[in-house]
Amino acid sequence: MSRLLATFAVIWRLAHPYFFSEDRRAGRILLTGVILIELSLVGINVMINRWQNAFFQALQDRAWDAFVDQVLTFLLLAGSYVVLAVYQLYLQQWLQIRWRAWMTRRYLDHWLAGANHYRMQLLGDAADNPDQRIADDIRLFSEKGIYIGLRILGASVQFVSFVVILWGLSGDAPLVVFGYQVPIPGYLVWAALTYAIIGTAFTHWIGKPLINLNFMRQRYEADFRFDLVRVRENSEQIALLKGEAAEDVRLQHRFSFVINNWREIMSRTKRLTLLTASYVQASTMVPYLLVGPAYFAGKIQFGALMQTVSAFTSVREALSIFVEVYRELADWRSVVARLDGFDAAIAQAQASAAVPAAIEVPPRAETKSITIDDLLIRLPSGQPLVAAETLAIEPGGDSVLVTGPSGAGKSTLFRTIAGIWPFSSGAIRVPEGARVMVMPQRPYFPVATLAEAVNFPDAPGTFDSAQLADALTAVGLPNLVGRLGEEAHWNRVLSLGEQQRLAFARALLQKPDFLFLDESTASLEEAAETALYKLLKTRLATTTLISIGHRSGLAGFHDRHLVLARDGDRQRVHEQVMAASG
Predict the structure, then answer these.
(1) How does DSSP classify residue 560?
(2) In this predicted model, what pLDDT tens digit does every residue of 533-558 receive, in sequence order?
(3) For residues 552 and 406, what is the distance between their CA atoms, to the nearest angstrom?
(4) Which one of 3.30.60.50, 3.40.50.300, 3.30.70.240, 3.10.180.10 gives the CATH number of domain 370-576?
(5) How many helices and strands in the chain, by DSSP H and E?
(6) Residues 170-194: tens digit of each pLDDT
(7) What's the Cα-to-Cα distance from 381 to each of 107, 122, 384, 420, rounded to whole Å?
(8) pLDDT tens digit string along 281-329?
(9) pLDDT band with cut points at 50, 70 and 90 for residue 365
(10) Distance from first CA to last CA of the chain, Å, rounded?
(11) Which 8-state DSSP code applies to residue 315?
(12) What is the DSSP letter of 137?
């Protein structure tokens, strides 16, 4: 019971924000419409149950006029049912897509806010495959949630409606055993209740493992799909290494988890289907066996017999809703668990950003420099990595070169200053309103037009075609000017050297106050590197450059030299006198 209540609490926490959001009016209207139609459908079923008595009685009495009247009545009831069912499905699908759209926007906002997506990777795989959770789990949550909710609501109303009818019919058709009448008030209701409880208990016992199996199925499917995407994204490197055979083995191994999990689902589903199918088929004869003796004893007419069988079936179906939707419930519960884990991972990432040293933004008058005090950067395991006692990076053209051995933590120092590395203590102060841009060794460009890729992360159209063409020409990519309107996967179309030049064009356009270059010219020849740094010095004379690099030629473009050197269990930042350039 405690687990059930906890599950309901999670479902409520995931579901209710939409119906209190800015789209709540449309959501509530659609939900109300779907519920009212569901109640109307149950009402029509009640009228059809009563119609059965009169219809079959007309058949027994061979009353033609009554038969025609009942046929017309049925056409009216059936026609109304069909129209309502069609519009219920339409409104239900409308509600699903609005709910899904709102949840998708909400999860995307939370996942992408403040580098949460990056911190979630650093903190482990508590929320594996976020793409699958946003694309598939949200869809399944809204679709199955509405479907299961309506089924449960309909079953509850159906039970209340038909249990009164069935209780009354129990008195009209008393229980007859071996020719003797056994006075049990409402015995048909108790029989339906007992039958449903037994079926539900066995269904839960056999089907419970499906919850975890469905949870793992979603994970294995997403892992396999992710590895396929990785192969596609890195096809050139795999081909150059002739690694197709190794990738085939690895992908087959990953897919084996999907196969093994599916076989377990098949085995468990086979047993569950055997039970549920037997349960449903046996339920067809139960009301006849209970009421048949009273009919043959002359206690009730044929019409009353058929009405009783219909009412018993309706009550049994209402009580057996758990049996009938168990597989959907198991699948939905796994979806709920995955979204709950995703929420928890996002919350953990947000919390990690709030611990010291989150970036402080003092008033503009207090400082114009990026300053660091008593900074200690750690690995996710807690092991110390980089320490810096006091450091100030001045604005207005100050330039700093950062060097140190590979793996010393130079890039992690940049990530910390940028505010995305949460495992640190101390203080980093960035001037209010300062524009800080970090250029990693491998730039990122969205799958979009080239103009939009260069504009990123600014909105498309921030820079006009003339500005874009000038920047591309300046960084040595005049051949791309005619492709500004072309949409492509630019990280795959362009070489890494061309991508790094394109990143420099982006910097020229955005004109940051502080530009961090993390080996941003590593794939270019030294002559091209020199030309691009001269371009920055000319075009961005007031921009402070902070570079990570190993080539000796970079020294001539920087005024200060910071070195990461081993000091005990960590690297410590030291400032050295910049050697005079030749």
Answers:
(1) E
(2) 999 999 999 999 999 988 888 888 98
(3) 16
(4) 3.40.50.300
(5) 19, 13
(6) 777 777 676 667 677 778 888 888 8
(7) 28, 10, 9, 17
(8) 887 788 888 787 777 877 778 877 787 888 888 887 777 777 677 778 7
(9) very low
(10) 78
(11) H
(12) I
Question: What pLDDT score was predicted for residue 397?
Answer: 66
Spatial distance between the Cα atoms of 297 and 163, rounded to a whole number of angstroms: 24
- Measure the CA–CA gap between 332 and 325, rounded to whole angstroms: 10
In one-letter notation, the amino acid at residue 373 is: D
CB 74 within 8 A of CB 58: no
Contact 41/85 with Cβ under 8 angstroms?
Answer: yes
How high does pLDDT run on average in the chain?
85
The confidence score (pLDDT) of residue 360 equals 55
Question: In this structure, what DSSP letter does residue 577 have?
Answer: P
List the structure tokens of 176.
């007859």
Domain at 2-217+264-353: CATH architecture: Up-down Bundle (1.20)
Range list for CATH 3.40.50.300 in the chain: 370-576
Q: Which among 89, 93, 210 has a CA at the least distance from the CA of 143? A: 93
Residues of each domain in the chain carrying CATH 1.20.1560.10? 2-217+264-353
Two tokens at 222? 């997403």
